[in-house]
Amino acid sequence: MMNDDLATIKMQFLYALRSKGVTDNRVLQAMEEIDRGPFIRGIFAERAYEDMPLPIACGQTISQPSIVGMMTHALDVNPRDKVLEVGTGSGYQAAILAKLARRVYTIDRHRRLVREARVIFDELGLHTITAITGDGSFGLPYQAPFDRIIITAAAEDPPAPLLNQLKVGGIMVLPVGQSDAVQRLIKVHKTETGLEYNELRDVRFVPLLEGLGKE
Length: 215
Ligand code: SAH
Known about the structure:
Helix content is about 30%, strand content about 25%. By secondary structure, it is of the alpha/beta class. It is globular and about 55 Å long. S-adenosyl-L-homocysteine binds near residues 60, 109 and 137.
């Protein structure tokens, strides 16, 4: 592919994000800086700039870019924030968060995905991301509390350990619902007096599973 063509395709990618409602300038800038290409391998690589979820290793998926944009906006990340992501997958969402936050911790239950994501983070010089293999439903107690928590796999309910590891004043964004049905993306605010829930839209994510993956 010629460079000019790639530049045009990337411009169309950003235009598509805008037209699908990703209008926050900081989010758009982060998504312009982080090329989705390196996060997708094999036969699907050529579709990296389409607004589609795509298969990655371990039977998982990289989310649809407009959903990534929307979730990132909903998370309302500040430059001083310490963010936890559950569900590293390809590492794409974590890389975007790294452009907006001070520190990003990302956990996946698949060792292989974490290993591959780390390589890309290194190549891109994203040294504020720490990628960890583990069951993210339990969060990361030794780094808690977090200003922001994003879960990119669907749970039936927000996992209690993650709610506990959210700071007062913090925000958590996650899909909830049965894994084989349409789920709802929700935003949780932790206030002095408790938790406030807001429903954002319908989404479809892979399920949040227990324990570690096989590879
Ligand atoms: N955010 C990713 C997409 C995530 S797909 C990206 O930008 O590409 C959802 C991921 O959640 C999968 O990689 C899956 O392995 C992971 N996952 C599911 N249950 C998990 C759990 N309990 N702990 C950690 N990761 C989990």
